[in-house]
Amino acid sequence: MTLLGAVEGYYGPPLQHEARLDMVRWLATRGYDTFLYAPKSDPYHRDRWREPYPPERAAQLRALVEEGRACGVEVCLVISPGLDWRSGDEAALVAKLRSFTALGARSLGVAWDDVPPGGADLGAAHGRAVAAAAGQISAARWFTCPTDYATAAATPYLRAFAAELPAAVEVMWTGPSVVSPVVPVEQARALRESLGRRPLFAENFPVNDGTIAGVLHLGPYPRRDAALRDEVSGAVMNVMRLPLASRLGLAVAARFWRQGSGDRERDWRQCVAEVPGLAPLARACRAWVGDAGADPELLDWTRRAIATRGADTRLREFLERGCRGQLGESLAAEVAPWIDQWEDEAAAMLAALSLLAAAPEHRSEAAMLTALLWARARSSAVQAFGIRHAYYPVTRRDSAGVLLPDPAGLERHDNLTDLLCSAALGSGGNSGPSRD
Questions:
Q1: Does one domain contain both 141 and 254?
Q2: Which CA distances in Å does 31 have to 36, 218, 220?
Q3: Range of the domain at 141
């Protein structure tokens, strides 16, 4: 595994130009060598792909390419023509890609993701288009994302697609699912053997667009087998629309792919510690699909607080220290909804802790306050202290190769606040705390 990259490939407003330049500079300090520019909501990338970039935008892309080259990060400019691709569009594709080389780009990409699916004929057509462009334009590296980018095994589309491509073209693959909770090494190996090339693993982490926009992914890198490194040509991470907040996910990913300690929890804590004031928010926003619960230590403190009717004060002390702390101004502004939610959840939990410890004559008042603050915390779509509700695009293919939603993508749980408030409100006047 040699290539390590980040891709701006989410749905939603693209990064601001200066923020993108800062990200490329930062990537260079963490062992990243590639940045792919492919924001879905850039009209000249996808919806109006045939049209040249206006002069101001073209100048920004030129500056991005030059900045990447100066700091050692290769910038790949990507086009996504699949929404309205027609036979004979190869000339328009080549013309647009040539405009990228005129801006100084040495790496180019063609993405066919998230368009209507098809079989071998569509795969061959898509592959021939990439091959035609690669045959006419000299580039240091070519990237492509097929329509069948999420699959446990090679589909007829994917076999036909790969058969048309030059051997050096990088083919992106997100694992068996769009967001893959698990990526079996055996599947990567079988795909490599079927396609005659190592796939480029495209990790949909820490991205949080669409149905997971309320979840801030500040947790450890997803559980991946170290042997996966030997079966793929590299890995690229899909960033969030929050460039500063994305850095933690990118940092823990680099630890894994660049031969980290092998201890994902330790790597995560070390990366968190490098950002002043981030720990309280990161501990509350560490959830991901398949790992949607609260921070294990906070969960333990909560259970002990319930069991001791608030006499164990570690959770209270953590919440009272607050979340805003020493967070830098720019990062705090970027993640403001999650800081606000952290504080709403904390207010409800602190009320619940007071309810647990309250004398009988004060319990009714304390219970009303707890219930009100709990309701306010539960009303938000922003998730903290575990996931209450989110729908990750976990997918699977049926026997005919049709992409289907997998129930594993639905995360519906009680978070830490729910656990504590439910126990406190259900504890009654004299009885001990309730148990789940």
A1: yes
A2: 15, 19, 18
A3: 3-274
- 434 lies in a domain? no
Burial class (CB in 10 A: 0-12, 13-18, 19+), 342: buried
Beta strands (DSSP E) in 148-265 are: 170-173, 200-206, 234-238
Name the 3-class secondary structure at 13: coil
3-state secondary structure of 276: coil
- How is residue 409 written in tokens? 């993508």
Indicate whether this model's pTM tops 0.90.
yes
| DSSP helix/strand/coil, 34 | strand
If asked whether residues 234 and 200 sit together in one domain, one would say yes
The tens digit of pLDDT for each residue in 329-379 reads: 999 999 999 999 999 999 999 999 999 999 999 999 999 999 999 999 999
Residue 140 exposed, middle or buried by CB count within 10 Å (0-12, 13-18, 19+): exposed
**Judging by beta carbons within 10 Å of its beta carbon (0-12, 13-18, 19+), is residue 371 exposed, middle or buried?**
middle
- Angstrom distance (rounded) from CA 133 to CA 123: 16
Closest CA to 64 of 10, 23, 4: 23
